[in-house]
Amino acid sequence: MLETVTSPLGRFQYQRVELKRVAAFLSSHKTLFTVLWIAAFASVFLWQRNVVGGGLPVFWSGPVKPMPKLRPVAFNLTDFGGVGDGVTLNTEAFERAVSAISKLGKRGGGQLNVPPGKWLTAPFNLTSHMTLFLAEDAVILGIQDEKYWPLMPPLPSYGYGREHPGPRYGSLIHGQNLKDVVITGHNGTVNGQGQKWWKKYRQKLLNHTRGPLVEIMWSSDILISNITLRDSPFWTLHPYDCKNVTIRNVTILAPVFEAPNTDGIDPDSCEDMVIEDCYISVGDDGIAIKSGWDQYGIKYGKPSTNILIRNVVVRSMVSAGVSIGSEMSGGVSNVNVENILVWSSRRAVRIKTAPGRGGYVRSINYRNITFDNVRVGIVIKTDYNEHPDEGYDPKALPILKDISFTGIHGQGVRVPVRIHGSEEIPVKNVTFRDMSVGLTYKKKHIFQCAFVEGRVIGTIFPAPCDNLDRYDEQGRLVKRSASQNLTDIDYDF
């Protein structure tokens, strides 16, 4: 059950006493010297802990945060035989704990506390009305041998395992058809130990698509907060066809190179979702909003809508900080991305699609976006031609419209804007306002456009492409574009 650990210093009560009482208590010089030496010793190490942040030596246990009780009933993983030595396999302990909590739904559910330690496990499922709480210095480790990872059918809106046809590996932490699930803690860690997965993928030794680290499907009322997710075999956090999801104060890490497809957060056919106050540095897209792939996504028909992304710091050396698509065949709408810093990345914000996707991307608002050392700031790409199979309809053309960029600033950018629409897929009603981006290249065509229609309000830097109408700050038309079909795309830089 819940354990409360008392600080070794908790028994000392510091009170003001008269000098005579102190002298009487410390009747010998030896006792006085001993007490003063202990106090000084403790003070030095407490000071080192606060200033250096490296913690105390191993012989000093220090105060440990008690685990809060967030449910009427709470268990520790050790109650079910868990051993946190990094070697013992704890799958059965997790399964027994989840089974016990599954019986408590009418009482408000249960909480599973994962204490400090390294808890090796194969994939396991969550249950409704459950809180998974990771203590500080608790690490859930995913076993690296794929024979322990169950196979699942491909996602119905993808019709394909994404990397291979047929089934795919499940996620380390998984849930389906759930309600009221919380994954939180004192910044404990879920570590997928993806290094062997990445190597086998590059060597083409896997027969099935790698599994995500955390995947919640067909569920509602989900909160994920105050944890670290790292080194996923594949996508890191994948909410699929979920409603009312909050992801807050989450750190997501993977190597920025040689960690293929380790997207940070991929909302997929999700509705009513908030992602805020997160730090993400991974080997693919930091955040990628999706809604199904080609004919399978069109048939499934579940959009991603009403999504707020704010107060996020993100890095992606391979792909983009915040993406929409390319799998967006169910549609993406009503997305607000605000107060975002993208640093040391290949691209900052990107929308990607292709003929065959169908669907739409509309009502997308970017506000207060900062670029710091990125190759391309804003990208809209309409020829991202990856398809699950030959059954897609090349005449299923996506619709891109009603996209605004306000308060776009930064430095160290090669190409601030590249909007590559096409005759088949024009980009309509794009708005730029309050933009000033410092450049590393001084070439002429640094604001690149093709088949795009929209407007610039006020003065922006660098100068916009000629495809866009110009308005003053009061919204009065200054200059009408001669043509929205002008093509000025230069992929050489």
TrEMBL record:
InterPro entries, alphabetically?
GH28_Enzymes, Glyco_hydro_28, PbH1, Pectin_lyas_fold, Pectin_lyase_fold/virulence
Sorted alphabetically, which keywords does the UniProt record give?
Cell wall, Glycosidase, Hydrolase, Secreted
What's an example GO BP annotation here? carbohydrate metabolic process
GO molecular-function terms, A-Z: polygalacturonase activity
Q: Which domain of life is it from?
A: Eukaryota
> Which compartments is it annotated to reside in?
Secreted, Cell wall
Task: Give the main location.
Answer: secreted
Family designation: Belongs to the glycosyl hydrolase 28 family.
Query: What is the official name of this protein in its record?
Result: Polygalacturonase
Q: What is the organism of origin for this protein?
A: Erythroxylum novogranatense
Q: What high-level taxonomic lineage is stated for the organism?
A: Eukaryota, Viridiplantae, Streptophyta, Embryophyta, Tracheophyta
